[in-house]
Amino acid sequence: MKLRAALYARRSTDEHQVESLDTQLDNGRRFALSKHLKLDPLHEYTDTASRAEFAPRRRPGFAALRDAAIDGQFDVIIVRDDSRLGGDMLRVATFAQEMTDAGVKIVFYATGEEMVLDNETTRLMAVMRGFASESERRKIASRTRESAERKARRGLVAGGIVYGYRNVPAPDGAGRVREIDEKQAAVVREVFERYAAGEGLRTIGKALTERGIASPRAGKRGIGAWVPSALHAILRRPLYIGRMEWGHVHKTYKSGTRMRTTKHGHEVVVVDAPHLRIVSDELWQAVQARVRAQDAPEKKGGRPATYLLSGVLRCGECGGPLTVINGKQSYDAIKVYTCCRRRDRGGTVCPSTLRHEICEVDGAVRDWVRRMVLTEEYVAAIIAEARCRVAERASTHEHEIEQLERHAKKLRAEVDKFAELALEAPADARAVFFAKVGERQKELTAVETRLRTAKTVPAAMDLELRRLERDARQRLDEARSIIEREPFEARAFMRALFPTGIRATPLTRPDGRGVLLDGVAATGRAFGIKVGNSASPGGHGRYSTRERAGGTGFRMPVPLVVEAA
What we know:
single chain, 16 helices, 4 domains, Rossmann fold, Hect, E3 ligase catalytic domain fold, four-stranded parallel β-sheet, flat
């Protein structure tokens, strides 16, 4: 039986060849064919990310590959070389050890070598290769920063596009410089003047959006709405008074991903550029005085969300999050859910004007959870499905053990055969046979490692299932209690139960307006049960609750008659 293979390809963000990924995939497919490996197109994973990145949101293909490998969906990972896995020696070594423990080989098609971690020497070699890759990554980062700093000191563009300016070629052709875009500069002046006059960021943003003025982010995201964060950045940019500053923010590496930080030991480059001034010193100082007041310590930090479905409800019109504002029903003041995007950006972004009273919506969802999820019968059904999945996987492992034992027996016989031939052969020919002995012994070591792992899997799966069952029933008892609490414990459970959120769509009813709640509850996830934790390339390793055990959907009309505040 052919071994099942997966293929991983990564193109670094500093590699501009469009064909890089296609080249890696084509070469990997040819390698799989030459080695008689069964390569499923569903298990071809790709990423476009720096070798420094390991965060799942930055490298979803790598995260999906890892999850599928641990789930036992293939036996071999084909990759060009270890640099494609990443440039962090400890994280690459940890990944390789996880694959070894799961009985999955890592093979480099560029050399035909296998990444083996069966003893101290092979582990050390893997770490040393990772050290070389990480060292090169740090050198590249250092050279990139030095180049950007040289540009900044010369007054050249050392970053991206800034609203209010155009990037044009420098007169000497040695880079790019900024020049004022008068149309955008007029908008910048208006923002400064209105903010200095006391208007808020949301008010200014809505006015600009309603006039059809494209925001700084319109080019990237294809939307023209102004958001408070874009105005926040404009009001604090010293370039608008003709002072170029570079180096306040430094990129660092933390938790498997690159992050921006203002805490670093690098010098901040400051260059006077009076030809780039857009606002006057008086207007700048007036705005900064208000900015400092807004940024005072007592103003910083927001309170945690205090409502049951904060972060869970999504607008059915635009897909944005719902937030809570003051409203009224008849003459009574109430709290209502409303679209956050419409509140912040205006009606051109989202047409939904309906307010949803939190007591009605929260109560409807809470009742559904009690009735459909928090029952002994439902948890028992989830556990039964989990047992069926485990039984299927156990039968697969039994078949794999038989194959591995036959292969190991064949390799032992070949080792003995070539050893005998080496002893009987002339002295000048013994090296050939000893080399074959070494090759077979290396392969035998890898097979025996996989065999030991495979034999422990069924017992480990049964033990894990018992733990999951115990934890799920304990979680059921806890959930029944916390669902009544407001709001923190219950809200955490709701977010786990509805990882993809609940869409709230305006609904017209004969007895008045209402809202239709539509969502999928990942009950297996909420109870800590992840059966068959598969991750396809399309899903990027995320939980697909409609296809997993313990997932159920609902559609719930909730009648509401709530007036806007």
